[in-house]
Specification:
single chain; about 240 residues; alpha/beta; six-stranded mixed beta sheet; four-stranded antiparallel beta sheet; 10 strands; about 35% helix; about 25% strand
């Protein structure tokens, strides 16, 4: 059986900066994998290459063994690839429910009662049901992060790309977010998570990769990766806090 996600020799550069220099990565169905790396390493750009927001200069992105390089982001979403963005992008003039309903309709291709059921389920999973009728523009940071996640879940992804969803949250809020992501993964959803809040990753993923200089410099169990010489060197010899 082919991996759910497979990157083969992925290449991308912006001018003289290489953000992907022949990247190889495989994710099996149901995996939970974290990505760390210094600022400017190209982690978000990597998500763009996977999701279809960016086109690679070379190499392949495959979903279930199918090359999707020529497919746009909407087509990849219909194949089961959902993502969040570092800065939440709700339709501020719509309600929370309408935002999630739109994701269910346009992302998952649902209609009628099915759309409503998917939207309500996504709100329940992200604990946003009490805010369903609030304008999205009135939400605070945690609720906006939850809405970003709810909209991604409403597209019914098999592979969920999370981009810095814990950034700016308090410790209790991070713990709540971790619970939501772990529950989705426990249901069989594959998770690939970029995060600077390392404790959130350690509490959620079973594998960690470090991206720097356009290559993966470490790949393995989270604690081993964080303690590796290569990763310590990237973070200037500092100790990465992983306490939960």
């Amino acid at each position: 059986m082919a991996p759910l996600l497979q990157l083969s020799g992925l290449q991308k550069r912006f001018g003289e900066v290489r953000i992907a220099d022949g990247l190889d990565l495989e994710l099996e169905q149901g995996a939970a994998v974290g990505i760390v790396g210094p600022n400017g390493a190209g982690k978000t750009s990597l998500f763009g290459l996977i999701s279809g927001d960016l086109r690679p200069d070379g190499g392949d992105v495959r979903l279930d063994g199918r090359a999707v390089n020529r497919l746009d982001a909407a087509s990849r979403c219909r194949l089961g690839l959902g993502r969040t963005y570092q800065v939440p992008r709700p339709f501020e003039g719509l309600t929370v429910f309408e935002n999630v309903l739109l994701a269910a309709q346009q992302g998952a291709g649902t209609r009628g009662r099915e759309s409503h059921a998917v939207a309500l389920s996504s709100l329940d999973r992200t604990r946003l049901s009490p805010d369903a009728n609030r304008p999205a523009g009135s939400l605070g940071l945690l609720a906006r992060k939850r809405l970003e996640l709810a909209r991604a879940l409403a597209t019914r992804p098999r592979l969920l790309l999370l981009d810095e969803v814990a950034g700016g949250l308090t410790d209790p809020e991070v713990r709540e977010l971790v619970e939501i992501v772990r529950a989705a993964n426990a249901e069989g959803m594959t998770v690939l998570w970029i995060e600077h809040v390392v404790r959130a990753l350690v509490a959620t993923v079973s594998r960690l990769v470090c991206l720097a200089g356009g290559t993966f410099v470490a790949d393995g169990p989270p604690q081993e990766v964080l303690e590796s010489d290569a990763v310590r060197a990237i973070y200037l010899g500092s100790t990465v806090a992983v306490a939960t």
